[in-house]
Amino acid sequence: MQTKITETINISGLGTPANRKLLKVQSGQYAGRMMAIFKTANSEIKYSSAVNPYSSWSDMVTVASDSANAPFDVTLTASGDVYLVYIETVTNHLAFLKLSITDTGWTVGSKIYIYNGNLTNTPSIVLDKNENAYVTFSRFNGSSFDLQVKSSSDSGANWGSGPSDIGETIITGANLVISKIMTSADNVFVVYTADYQDIKERHRLLTGSSWSTEYTIGSGTAISIDFDAVVLPEGFLGVVYNDDQLIYREFNGVNWSPTVIIDSNSATYPQLRIINNVPVVFYLSEKDSNQIQLMQSSRISGFFSTPQVFETRSDIFDSVLLYDSVSSSFDEKTIEAASNTTADLIHTSSNALLQQAGDQVFIGSDDRFRFLHILLSTAGSGGTLTYSYFDGLNWIAFLPTNGNYQFDTSSRELTLWQDYDNTPETWQKNVVNGVSRFWIKIEATSAFTIAPIGSQLTSISNLKAINVRR
Question: Which CATH class is domain 319-458?
Answer without folding.
Answer: mainly beta
